[in-house]
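Hi R.,

Here's the input for the WT7 complex you asked about:
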Amino acid sequence: MWLPCGCTSKYVASSFARRTLASYLHVSGRSRCNVAAFMPEAAGLEGVSGRAALRELSVSNSESFWAAVARHRLCWSTPFHTVQDCDLSRGKIKWFEGGKLNVSVNCLDRHVHTCPERVALIWERDERGSEMKYTYGELLEMTCRLGNLLRRHGVKRGDCVTIYMPTCPLAVASMLACARIGAAHNVVFAGFSADALAERIRDGEMLLLIITVNQGVRGGKVTELKKTVDTAMQSCPTVKQVFVAMRTDNPVTMTARDIAMEEVREQKANQILEIQIQAVEDVVCEPAVMNSEDVLFLLYTSGSTGKPKGLVHTQAGYLLYAALTHRYVFSYHDGDVFGCVADIGWITGHSYVVYGPLANGATTVLFESTPIYPDPGRYWDMVERLKINQFYGAPTAIRLLLKYGDQWVNKYDRSTLKTLGSVGEPINTEAWEWYHRVVGDGRCPVVDTWWQTETGGICIAPRPSDPDAEIVPGMAMRPFFGINPVLMDTEGEVLTSNNTSGALCMAQPWPGMARTIHNNHQRFIDTYFQPYPGYFFTGDGAYRSEEGYYQITGRLDDVINVSGHRIGTAEIEDVVCPAVAESAVVGYTHSIKGQGVYAFVVLKKGIDVQEADLSRQLNGMVSEKIAKYASPDFIQFAKRLPKTRSGKIMRRVLRKVVESDLEGLGDLSTLDDPAAVQEIIQGHEKLL
Ligand code: WT7
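And here is the predicted structure with WT7 in place:
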């Protein structure tokens, strides 16, 4: 019999049977060498002296490096026989073949084995001051009950489960329960509309099941998540079951398809005091033995053309990369409280709220609220209350908080903070300096981390190997272990010198990279490997300084980044297109959001409509079909759009117009009718 200590969970760890899995807990022999103190996983590598040499070796002899790290960092039930089998020219990426393991065992059982009372999750609920803690023992129990529940309803290894939930312990347990029984998960950000949810469910014909909550609560506002699921279900006939958990006490209409995930254990005067995942489920759930390259999850992200793509990440390589980057980029140490405020609906939530921290046995924070609810001191109040050691957030929030002033930060004790992280978009110098000087009291390094849904984990960051290394504000700086970035010129040649800019590519595979696009390997090849054959193309541009440091300069394609949310301009154009004759969407610089959405539209002929009415209608359509954040900030009505003689819209010109950079309009000689540009410029000036 095991009981949790000092936790405020509503889930009672009743009879957690300590049937841990000794066979999984085998860690191969560790010998010591001089890098061992810094990176014990590299201890088996002969003849490496110092961090620089280790970083060098991680690229020059990446197989030895990753083999040593994988053996040390993960618990395998069967060791791998082949470190890697990759061919970037064909988009073939395989790591650790022959190896068998279970991701949930790596994230839970092995820590329960050594310290069951350690807190795994702190759920910073929307209601300030009502946080709840869950130990590793409790999280394992929740995961096992859920795993059994899913199994009992027919979910098998290889199936895929959609999770449409806000960031909360049940969402984490659902992800881990899928991993436990060998099903893939597809987490859809709970801010996405019914249409966007339905599209992501339909894309994979094997998606049978959905897990959701009755209502979401964020920033004091209730969102009707179950109702959104009901709407989405109208166009998803393959979905057989919907599991519904209760985030609020308000009942929702349940249909024959819906199954309550929890049951009420104690209730007084209509108030639910305690609920538990269906108690009939056993707290022991035999983990599926998975192959390294079996699918762990799909995650949809926007591209420059067409529909969002379901990137596929697999078991061992992804977990290893998330764990290793979590440990070294943030200088995480055992016992630290790691506070990544991202939503689990994005890759940042997957890698640095769930998998990386849990694989490392960390205490990870689940942030359900917003930076300004109930006031702009929310983050720092949380840092004080939860004693957060590493804080990882987005520049858009930092810019917003900066505007509210230092007093909201200074009110709270931030002495526990050791590292501050930034992710998702470039961080401008003003925000970087405020973050460093005010939030971190000038004491904490700010790590600006560059990566993508495709890369699985952080690829470029200031201090991957040296906690004392120099950091230049606003620069992502140095490649992580095993990462080999190159810059390409427009001819597709590698730029070898420093102080130069080009297209950012990766010359070598690494274990965390995505393996394919669900149901569309050809699109995977075309998007990432065909532009620069033999290299992985990131879609971003970068500058490499004289010292060899990297700075990300932004997307090279038609993807924009609104408050750290990636969106293809083509997706927005597709939504507005039925209501207008033609449209072109571009990003423009926005002081808080990083980029905002600016739409040019040409009205259908003969249609008599007030521009204000149509603007409202178009905004509504985008919110409904995609999400609120994608809704245009500006809609400019135009008689025509500037086009080349072959009829292509000249987006480059539109981008310059919205940035009011008329000097930079560039070569207009291919323009079909120069007067179109003048009209666009005048229309833009009127709108401002
Ligand atoms: C795109 C990836 C990384 C996880 C969250 C977003 C941009 C990301 C940075 C950074 C400049 C950045 C890039 C990238 N981006 N981090 N530190 N500096 N730009 O993941 O939704 O897949 O978006 O976000 O343009 O390609 P994502």
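One thing worth noting: DSSP finds 18 helices and 35 strands in the chain.

Cheers,
M.
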